[in-house]
Amino acid sequence: MAATPEKLLLRLEWKVVRRLDGRLQGAHRTAHRGSGIDFTGLRPYGDGDDARHIDWNVTARLDEPHLRVFTEDRELTVWLVLDRSASMLAGRPGRGKHDVLAELALVLARLFGRGGNRVGALLFDTGMLRVVPPGTSRRHALRIGAELERTAGAARGGATTDLAEMLDAAGRLARRRALVVVLSDFIGDGDWERSLQRLARRHEVVALRIVDTADDALPEAGLIVVEDAETGEQLVVDSADPLLRVRFREAVDERDARLAAGMRRAGVPVHRVDTDRDLAEALVEVVARTRDRSS
């Protein structure tokens, strides 16, 4: 991040948070609300009630199905899963994928925290894991920003990102039901679909896929050195070669289709956030799509 977390958050609060404050809370209706831990009583079972809450001892005694009733848990715990792998370094200076991830993380931490929810963060790279425990204050959002600043630009070549390991780490960390927001470009290895399904069965999961132009298009610049952002392997190619460009496009389309299919099978909504797009506009669209999906 070019600016300090304090300066960056001030700018984001002025340009983005004010425009989104209130929208995010109203748009997010998690299916896990209302399953709090405080028992308040019993009531007769009715059509459409969750049979998992039946008190079988009382039911047997009264010879009529009764449900255990709990107070609604209005506090939402949010976990931000932040991909700090080498491929996230792609993009132009000051507006690369890791810059956009940092801005998104600060905005989401501030927005959810202002609503009284607890926000934690998991910063992941293969072989490195940092955890910021859940908190609510503005100072806590800055703590997440400080951890992002510490991990920005670190040398991380030589190993591909294990997406499955990242999602499994989130599952181990979020012990209670929570909203898990995964911020990543989803470039990496591992049988991540099974891990995502396991995570989605227990938590509500939303994916924000951060994409740079370099991820999708090969520039026509003659002979260029192509470097695998994850492994550091370099190769000289002719970017004007029509066959190469066709193969590159096919590989991109296959990657996108595989990602979309995996997310769909897991029941996880995935929202694309391009690095060259206005952040507030992108998040407004995410909120709108979330509302459409919830209605």
Features:
single chain, 295 residues, alpha/beta, six-stranded mixed β-sheet, two-stranded antiparallel sheet, 10 helices
Overview of the structural elements:
Helix 1 crosses helix 4, helix 1 packs across helix 10 and helix 7 (192-202) packs parallel to helix 9 (242-266). The strands form three sheets. The chain has a six-stranded mixed sheet, sandwiched between helices. Strands 1-2 form a two-stranded antiparallel sheet. Mean pLDDT is 81; it is low at 29-37. The protein is built from ten helices and ten strands. It has helices at 5-20, 23-27, 56-62, 97-114, 138-151, 163-173, 192-202, 213-216, 242-266, 279-294, and strands spanning 39-44, 66-70, 77-83, 118-125, 128-135, 179-184, 204-211, 223-227, 234-238, 270-274. The chain has 295 residues and is an alpha/beta fold. It is globular.
As laid out across the biggest beta sheet, the strand order is: 5-4-3-6-7-10
DSSP summary, beta strand count: 10
The biggest beta sheet is recorded as: 6 strands, mixed
Overall radius of gyration:
22 Å
Q: Determine the fraction of residues in helical runs and give it as a percent range.
A: 40-55%
CA(first)-CA(last) distance? 37 Å
Q: What string, H for helix and E for strand, traces the elements in order?
A: HHEHEEHEEHHEHEHEEHEH
Mean pLDDT across the residues is 81
Structural class: alpha/beta
